[in-house]
Protein backbone atom coordinates (compact mmCIF):
# COMPACT_ATOMS: atom_id res chain seq x y z
CA UNK A 1 0.00 0.00 0.00
CA UNK A 2 1.41 3.40 -0.96
CA UNK A 3 1.66 5.53 2.16
CA UNK A 4 3.74 8.57 1.31
CA UNK A 5 4.84 11.02 -1.36
CA UNK A 6 8.47 10.26 -2.08
CA UNK A 7 8.92 12.88 -4.80
CA UNK A 8 7.28 16.31 -4.85
CA UNK A 9 8.02 18.54 -7.84
CA UNK A 10 6.51 22.02 -8.16
CA UNK A 11 6.44 24.66 -10.84
CA UNK A 12 7.31 28.14 -9.52
CA UNK A 13 5.74 31.05 -11.40
CA UNK A 14 1.97 31.34 -10.84
CA UNK A 15 2.01 28.02 -8.99
CA UNK A 16 3.94 29.09 -5.90
CA UNK A 17 3.91 32.80 -6.77
CA UNK A 18 0.95 35.07 -7.34
CA UNK A 19 2.20 36.08 -10.81
CA UNK A 20 5.08 35.46 -13.20
CA UNK A 21 8.35 36.65 -11.70
CA UNK A 22 10.85 36.37 -14.57
CA UNK A 23 10.32 40.07 -15.20
CA UNK A 24 11.68 40.72 -11.70
CA UNK A 25 15.15 39.82 -12.96
CA UNK A 26 14.90 42.47 -15.68
CA UNK A 27 13.36 44.95 -13.25
CA UNK A 28 16.42 44.59 -11.04
CA UNK A 29 18.90 45.08 -13.91
CA UNK A 30 17.10 48.08 -15.41
CA UNK A 31 16.68 49.76 -12.01
CA UNK A 32 20.33 49.26 -11.15
CA UNK A 33 21.52 50.81 -14.42
CA UNK A 34 19.27 53.82 -13.84
CA UNK A 35 20.57 54.24 -10.27
CA UNK A 36 24.14 54.18 -11.59
CA UNK A 37 23.25 56.90 -14.07
CA UNK A 38 23.93 54.65 -17.06
CA UNK A 39 20.43 54.53 -18.51
CA UNK A 40 17.12 56.19 -17.78
CA UNK A 41 13.65 55.66 -19.27
CA UNK A 42 14.39 58.44 -21.78
CA UNK A 43 17.60 56.80 -23.02
CA UNK A 44 15.92 54.20 -25.24
CA UNK A 45 17.77 55.35 -28.36
CA UNK A 46 21.25 55.15 -26.81
CA UNK A 47 23.36 52.29 -28.15
CA UNK A 48 24.56 51.35 -24.68
CA UNK A 49 21.02 51.07 -23.31
CA UNK A 50 18.65 48.21 -24.13
CA UNK A 51 15.09 48.93 -25.25
CA UNK A 52 12.40 48.99 -22.55
CA UNK A 53 11.62 45.54 -21.16
CA UNK A 54 8.12 45.83 -22.61
CA UNK A 55 9.72 45.58 -26.07
CA UNK A 56 11.04 42.10 -25.29
CA UNK A 57 7.83 40.94 -23.63
CA UNK A 58 5.61 42.09 -26.49
CA UNK A 59 7.90 40.62 -29.15
CA UNK A 60 8.05 37.29 -27.32
CA UNK A 61 4.28 36.91 -27.05
CA UNK A 62 3.81 38.04 -30.67
CA UNK A 63 6.28 35.46 -31.95
CA UNK A 64 4.84 32.75 -29.72
CA UNK A 65 1.30 33.43 -30.95
CA UNK A 66 2.43 33.45 -34.58
CA UNK A 67 4.39 30.22 -34.11
CA UNK A 68 1.42 28.38 -32.58
CA UNK A 69 -0.86 29.66 -35.35
CA UNK A 70 1.53 28.57 -38.11
CA UNK A 71 2.16 25.22 -36.43
CA UNK A 72 -1.57 24.55 -36.25
CA UNK A 73 -1.93 25.30 -39.95
CA UNK A 74 0.74 22.79 -40.94
CA UNK A 75 0.51 20.14 -38.18
CA UNK A 76 -2.84 18.50 -37.33
CA UNK A 77 -3.28 18.27 -33.56
CA UNK A 78 -5.58 15.34 -32.95
CA UNK A 79 -3.77 13.64 -30.07
CA UNK A 80 -1.82 14.38 -26.96
CA UNK A 81 1.31 13.24 -28.77
CA UNK A 82 0.65 15.89 -31.43
CA UNK A 83 0.36 18.50 -28.70
CA UNK A 84 3.67 17.42 -27.18
CA UNK A 85 5.28 18.05 -30.58
CA UNK A 86 3.91 21.58 -30.48
CA UNK A 87 5.32 22.09 -26.99
CA UNK A 88 8.72 20.87 -28.18
CA UNK A 89 8.63 23.17 -31.21
CA UNK A 90 8.26 26.20 -28.93
CA UNK A 91 11.93 25.79 -28.02
CA UNK A 92 12.90 27.93 -31.02
CA UNK A 93 10.67 30.76 -29.78
CA UNK A 94 12.20 30.60 -26.31
CA UNK A 95 15.76 30.54 -27.64
CA UNK A 96 15.07 33.47 -29.97
CA UNK A 97 13.70 35.48 -27.06
CA UNK A 98 16.64 34.69 -24.80
CA UNK A 99 19.19 35.46 -27.51
CA UNK A 100 17.51 38.81 -28.14
CA UNK A 101 17.86 39.65 -24.44
CA UNK A 102 21.51 38.58 -24.56
CA UNK A 103 22.17 40.65 -27.69
CA UNK A 104 21.09 43.83 -25.92
CA UNK A 105 22.94 42.86 -22.73
CA UNK A 106 19.77 43.46 -20.72
CA UNK A 107 20.56 41.37 -17.67
CA UNK A 108 24.23 42.19 -17.00
CA UNK A 109 25.70 43.66 -13.84
CA UNK A 110 23.44 42.07 -11.21
CA UNK A 111 25.20 40.64 -8.16
CA UNK A 112 24.14 37.18 -7.02
CA UNK A 113 23.10 38.54 -3.61
CA UNK A 114 20.84 41.12 -5.29
CA UNK A 115 18.97 38.33 -7.06
CA UNK A 116 18.58 36.48 -3.77
CA UNK A 117 17.16 39.60 -2.10
CA UNK A 118 14.85 40.23 -5.07
CA UNK A 119 13.51 36.72 -4.57
CA UNK A 120 12.59 37.52 -0.98
CA UNK A 121 10.27 40.26 -2.23
CA UNK A 122 8.30 38.03 -4.62
CA UNK A 123 4.68 37.65 -3.54
CA UNK A 124 3.68 34.03 -3.08
CA UNK A 125 0.31 32.34 -2.93
CA UNK A 126 -1.22 31.93 0.51
CA UNK A 127 -0.13 28.73 2.29
CA UNK A 128 2.37 27.79 -0.46
CA UNK A 129 5.45 27.96 1.73
CA UNK A 130 3.59 26.41 4.68
CA UNK A 131 2.74 23.32 2.62
CA UNK A 132 6.24 23.01 1.18
CA UNK A 133 7.78 23.50 4.62
CA UNK A 134 5.65 20.69 6.08
CA UNK A 135 6.84 18.34 3.36
CA UNK A 136 10.50 19.38 3.40
CA UNK A 137 10.71 19.34 7.20
CA UNK A 138 9.17 15.89 7.46
CA UNK A 139 11.59 14.44 4.93
CA UNK A 140 14.64 16.53 5.79
CA UNK A 141 16.53 13.60 7.28
CA UNK A 142 15.46 11.09 4.65
CA UNK A 143 17.40 11.40 1.42
CA UNK A 144 14.91 9.11 -0.30
CA UNK A 145 12.26 11.84 -0.12
CA UNK A 146 12.75 14.86 -2.30
CA UNK A 147 11.34 18.32 -2.98
CA UNK A 148 12.26 19.97 -6.27
CA UNK A 149 11.31 23.22 -7.97
CA UNK A 150 11.17 22.78 -11.75
CA UNK A 151 10.81 26.09 -13.57
CA UNK A 152 11.40 27.94 -16.85
CA UNK A 153 12.42 30.99 -14.79
CA UNK A 154 15.79 32.60 -15.53
CA UNK A 155 17.39 32.82 -12.08
CA UNK A 156 17.99 29.99 -9.63
CA UNK A 157 19.35 32.50 -7.10
CA UNK A 158 16.13 34.51 -7.18
CA UNK A 159 14.03 31.37 -6.70
CA UNK A 160 16.27 30.30 -3.83
CA UNK A 161 15.86 33.71 -2.22
CA UNK A 162 12.09 33.38 -2.50
CA UNK A 163 12.03 30.04 -0.67
CA UNK A 164 15.16 29.64 1.47
CA UNK A 165 13.91 31.47 4.56
CA UNK A 166 10.71 29.43 4.85
CA UNK A 167 11.32 26.13 3.05
CA UNK A 168 14.14 23.67 3.53
CA UNK A 169 15.46 23.43 0.00
CA UNK A 170 18.96 23.49 -1.42
CA UNK A 171 19.95 25.34 -4.56
CA UNK A 172 20.72 22.00 -6.26
CA UNK A 173 17.03 21.12 -6.00
CA UNK A 174 15.98 24.21 -7.94
CA UNK A 175 16.00 23.13 -11.56
CA UNK A 176 15.67 26.06 -13.95
CA UNK A 177 17.47 28.23 -16.44
CA UNK A 178 20.12 30.43 -14.90
CA UNK A 179 22.26 33.50 -15.43
CA UNK A 180 25.99 33.21 -16.10
CA UNK A 181 28.21 35.01 -13.57
CA UNK A 182 31.65 36.55 -13.93
CA UNK A 183 34.55 36.42 -11.47
CA UNK A 184 32.98 39.15 -9.29
CA UNK A 185 29.73 37.19 -8.92
CA UNK A 186 27.88 39.59 -11.19
CA UNK A 187 25.79 38.54 -14.16
CA UNK A 188 27.44 38.61 -17.60
CA UNK A 189 24.16 39.06 -19.47
CA UNK A 190 24.18 35.46 -20.73
CA UNK A 191 21.64 32.74 -19.91
CA UNK A 192 22.10 29.02 -19.38
CA UNK A 193 19.23 27.65 -21.45
CA UNK A 194 18.22 24.38 -19.80
CA UNK A 195 14.45 24.38 -19.14
CA UNK A 196 12.68 25.92 -22.12
CA UNK A 197 9.57 23.81 -22.79
CA UNK A 198 7.19 21.34 -21.22
CA UNK A 199 9.18 18.52 -22.79
CA UNK A 200 12.37 19.78 -21.12
CA UNK A 201 10.52 19.66 -17.83
CA UNK A 202 9.34 16.12 -18.53
CA UNK A 203 12.85 14.92 -19.42
CA UNK A 204 14.21 16.32 -16.15
CA UNK A 205 11.30 14.98 -14.08
CA UNK A 206 11.78 11.55 -15.63
CA UNK A 207 15.33 11.40 -14.25
CA UNK A 208 14.36 12.16 -10.64
CA UNK A 209 14.24 9.27 -8.22
CA UNK A 210 10.93 8.00 -6.85
CA UNK A 211 11.76 5.81 -3.84
CA UNK A 212 10.25 2.34 -3.88
CA UNK A 213 6.87 2.16 -2.18
CA UNK A 214 6.16 5.87 -2.60
CA UNK A 215 4.44 8.06 -5.19
CA UNK A 216 5.30 11.21 -7.12
CA UNK A 217 3.30 14.45 -7.14
CA UNK A 218 3.66 17.34 -9.59
CA UNK A 219 1.99 20.70 -9.00
CA UNK A 220 1.74 23.23 -11.85
CA UNK A 221 -0.56 25.79 -13.39
CA UNK A 222 -0.07 25.90 -17.16
CA UNK A 223 0.21 24.03 -20.43
CA UNK A 224 3.98 23.85 -19.91
CA UNK A 225 3.34 21.68 -16.85
CA UNK A 226 0.92 19.28 -18.54
CA UNK A 227 3.46 16.56 -19.50
CA UNK A 228 4.81 16.39 -15.95
CA UNK A 229 1.35 16.43 -14.37
CA UNK A 230 0.32 13.46 -16.51
CA UNK A 231 3.58 11.61 -15.85
CA UNK A 232 3.33 11.94 -12.08
CA UNK A 233 1.25 9.54 -9.98
CA UNK A 234 -0.77 12.59 -8.94
CA UNK A 235 -0.89 15.76 -11.03
CA UNK A 236 -2.35 18.86 -9.42
CA UNK A 237 -3.44 21.95 -11.35
CA UNK A 238 -3.16 25.22 -9.44
CA UNK A 239 -5.91 27.63 -10.53
CA UNK A 240 -7.91 27.99 -13.73
CA UNK A 241 -5.52 28.44 -16.63
CA UNK A 242 -7.81 28.69 -19.67
CA UNK A 243 -5.34 27.25 -22.18
CA UNK A 244 -4.53 24.26 -20.01
CA UNK A 245 -8.22 23.54 -19.44
CA UNK A 246 -8.86 23.76 -23.18
CA UNK A 247 -6.23 21.16 -23.98
CA UNK A 248 -7.39 18.84 -21.20
CA UNK A 249 -10.91 18.95 -22.59
CA UNK A 250 -9.63 18.43 -26.13
CA UNK A 251 -7.61 15.33 -25.30
CA UNK A 252 -10.00 13.70 -22.86
CA UNK A 253 -8.03 14.42 -19.71
CA UNK A 254 -10.45 14.47 -16.80
CA UNK A 255 -10.09 17.36 -14.36
CA UNK A 256 -11.33 16.58 -10.87
CA UNK A 257 -12.15 19.77 -8.97
CA UNK A 258 -11.07 19.62 -5.36
CA UNK A 259 -8.60 17.40 -3.57
CA UNK A 260 -9.81 16.69 -0.05
CA UNK A 261 -12.79 14.48 -0.93
CA UNK A 262 -11.46 13.13 -4.22
CA UNK A 263 -8.03 11.72 -3.40
CA UNK A 264 -9.37 8.17 -3.58
CA UNK A 265 -10.41 8.57 -7.22
CA UNK A 266 -6.94 7.69 -8.45
CA UNK A 267 -5.29 4.35 -7.79
CA UNK A 268 -2.19 5.55 -5.98
CA UNK A 269 -0.49 2.18 -6.46
CA UNK A 270 -0.73 2.42 -10.24
CA UNK A 271 2.52 3.15 -12.08
CA UNK A 272 0.82 3.74 -15.42
CA UNK A 273 0.23 7.22 -16.73
CA UNK A 274 -2.96 8.79 -15.48
CA UNK A 275 -5.38 10.78 -17.59
CA UNK A 276 -6.94 12.41 -14.55
CA UNK A 277 -5.74 15.59 -12.88
CA UNK A 278 -6.85 17.29 -9.69
CA UNK A 279 -7.54 21.03 -9.71
CA UNK A 280 -7.28 23.24 -6.64
CA UNK A 281 -7.79 26.98 -6.24
CA UNK A 282 -5.13 27.40 -3.59
CA UNK A 283 -2.53 25.70 -1.44
CA UNK A 284 -4.93 25.54 1.50
CA UNK A 285 -6.75 22.72 -0.29
CA UNK A 286 -3.49 20.76 -0.52
CA UNK A 287 -2.81 21.47 3.15
CA UNK A 288 -6.27 20.28 4.20
CA UNK A 289 -5.99 17.10 2.12
CA UNK A 290 -2.97 16.01 4.21
CA UNK A 291 -1.56 14.47 1.04
CA UNK A 292 1.95 15.69 1.85
CA UNK A 293 1.89 15.09 5.62
TrEMBL record:
InterPro entries attached to this UniProt entry: HAD-like_hydrolase_phosphatase, HAD-like_sf, HAD_sf
Coiled coil: none
Top-rank taxon: Eukaryota
Protein name: Haloacid dehalogenase-like hydrolase
UniProt organism field: Diversispora epigaea
